[in-house]
Amino acid sequence: MLIVKKFGGTSVGNRDRIFNVAERCIEDYKKGNDVVVVLSAMGKYTDVLIDMAKEINPNPPKREMDMLLTTGEQQSVALMSMAMASLGVPAVALNAFQVAMHTTSAYSTARIKRIDTDRIQTELEQKKIVIITGFQGINKYDDYTTLGRGGSDTTAVAIAAALHADLCEIYTDVDGVYTADPRKVPTARKLDQVTYDEMLELATLGAGVLHNRSVELAKKYGVRMVVRSSLNTSQGTIVREGSKMEKMIVSGVAADTDAARVAVIGLTDEPGVAFKLFNALAKQNINIDMILQSIGRHGKKDISFTCSDEDADLAKQIIEERMEFEDIDIDKHVSKVSIVGAGMQSNAGVAAKMFEALFDANINIRMISTSEIRVTVLINEKNTERAMNAIHDKFNLGSAE
Amino acid sequence: MLIVKKFGGTSVGNRDRIFNVAERCIEDYKKGNDVVVVLSAMGKYTDVLIDMAKEINPNPPKREMDMLLTTGEQQSVALMSMAMASLGVPAVALNAFQVAMHTTSAYSTARIKRIDTDRIQTELEQKKIVIITGFQGINKYDDYTTLGRGGSDTTAVAIAAALHADLCEIYTDVDGVYTADPRKVPTARKLDQVTYDEMLELATLGAGVLHNRSVELAKKYGVRMVVRSSLNTSQGTIVREGSKMEKMIVSGVAADTDAARVAVIGLTDEPGVAFKLFNALAKQNINIDMILQSIGRHGKKDISFTCSDEDADLAKQIIEERMEFEDIDIDKHVSKVSIVGAGMQSNAGVAAKMFEALFDANINIRMISTSEIRVTVLINEKNTERAMNAIHDKFNLGSAE
């Protein structure tokens, strides 16, 4: 079996942790598997490098920033290879040049285009564990690039796809994907498996252990992923394409408290108003989530939407400059609570059951939005945990599947 | 003019020093010169990385060690490029892959084979300052190598040779090459120029500001070098091929206190004894310097030689195991004092004048060795500084040329 294993910065943060990871990899290697390891920079070292750069230049050229940051992963992989050597196992550390990991040209936000597998294959054939720098690539100018947030997960999935690996294990500090955040919902239960689409919705909602980019890539190439803990040997959660038969109706409950509701009252009810409004916001890179538009009356209509807490004031300012309306109101004390489940697209009563749970708990729903496999409600922020528990209980998510 | 400028770790050890170097480079750039900068890792960062590695594996694989160490220079060049950008000058940082800097395969002790100049030329044509990682290369396996001691100086000279640069400036913490160590000889004077051969002898004698490898390379390709201070703007010392007319008879006095004398008394006087003795030492990598063999008498002869203090006891042990003799004596309280000068090969009285200076100072000469441009004497270590001053005065080296 060919296994790609990805470990984040915390997992390689010091000597003992490096050896812990080395031993886990060697365990699989000694069972006769081919093992490829993808690593992030140690601990918070990327932040240390960013601070060094900012001290020199508060606005450093992105190309040079990537040149600096890529040293972090290179150090991790070199040290890991040394650890494996000291345990008597042949290993080889490779960086983005050596792989080679081709990306788009965009420094700091590059996307993987193509991975040469020759070198990796050659090293695997020589029965070495291959340790690869996550997060980094090279572009057509032969310059280093970095992949931005979630980069190392994406590297791991891309390598698994390129090598047609049997499994891509993403090691993290949690046991897997839960039906809800266990810190907020005591009865939350670890899921044995979720579908790519469920994982994508969960990631978007901030419940995600995985970054969306890596899940999208895994879905596209059918890479079988597992999310599991680097601290224990529990089985983790498998992320894969699920057949309908196996699907639970609802897989989990997620909440995002970083939400603000902006209500624009008394806009002129004429064609193009919504376009004008959201176009102005998009130009300033303000991401809009839920949108509610009232039915027009007396030539006026209201539009409400949600954005991040951080963007709310800027959104208000832009609307005041560009639009004509009667009143605008911002409420930052709101949160989004969602249920996610691949089974709900064929189960009509799911949303109603969620609303019932909230009604029973006397929680008012401010806005609603849905996708094929998700229902999201906007509620008062102070009710977030109560809502999550009420919904979790209603769908009986704490019981084994 | 195309200038290659090399700065060591101390010169880029912190933010202020990085900016100091950036400004010096920009000064030349603004005069219309093409500027290539070669940097070492910051301060003692290479040692930090070595310690990290040893903590993981006391005997780390050399390939992985080089993979780790090369991150040091990559950080320096990236930060320097950011500093130049903040001063409004376009710059680009390149590592061994990007250059590309081809070396032999030997990890940790690689030698430069070939430097591609395409990328450097392209960047220079775009009027950028090009900042290159010293000390590192890549081998035919596409793996990082490092060049060992004096590596960054060697990188700078090799790049200057490959680009046919007009000048290769080696910045250091001293003003240049002196007639003697100013800490020991108060009247020591900075030399405006020395020949490659003189510099080679001085480097060998430990007086060297430059490592021999870089000087040999400069001599081979006729690269005009300057050794100068990164702390001030004094002119430094030019190292170049000198015509005889310009040569001083003696350029400088150097001393090496890391010397021990081993005397082997009463060896059998038969052919092959010296071979057997020095072959045994060579096999254990003990470097031998001065050798004195007595004229055989009564079927016996004595052989004395010098080695480093550190190797003396091992040398004694090897000789005791392998040779037959009457007595062996080690004296670690000796030092080598040398005069170096390209002019002395055509000036017969130079050695005699040196011996006269020592006689006047009542200093006993224990051994003598000479090369075409050097005379070295072994003396009691406690007389080292007195001998240097006596010789320095005798040759009137403190006066301007």
Give a structural overview:
Chain A has 401 residues and is an alpha/beta fold. Helix content of chain A is 35%, strand content 26%. The first copy, chain A, has 12 helices and 18 strands. In chain A, the strands form 4 sheets. Chain A has an 8-stranded mixed β-sheet with strand order 3-6-2-1-9-11-12-10, sandwiched between helices. In chain A, helix 1 crosses helix 3. The radius of gyration of chain A is 24 Å and the shape is globular.
For the structure shown, list the relevant keywords.
homodimer; 401 residues; alpha/beta; 12 helices; 18 strands; 26% strand; globular
Kindly state the mean pLDDT of chain A as a whole number?
91
The most extensive interface, with participating residues per chain, is:
A-B, 38 and 38 residues
What's the helical proportion of residues of chain A? 25-40%
Q: What are the low-pLDDT stretches of chain A, counting only 5+ consecutive residues below 50?
A: none
Through-space gap between termini of chain A: 29 Å
SSE diagram, text form:
2 copies of one chain form a homodimer.
Chain A: E1 2-7, H1 15-30, E2 34-39, H2 45-56, H3 62-86, E3 91-94, H4 96-99, E4 101-103, E5 112-115, H5 118-125, E6 129-133, E7 136-138, E8 144-146, H6 151-163, E9 167-172, E10 193-195, H7 196-204, H8 212-221, E11 225-229, E12 237-240, E13 252-268, H9 273-283, E14 291-293, E15 300-307, H10 312-322, E16 327-340, H11 350-360, E17 367-371, E18 374-380, H12 384-394
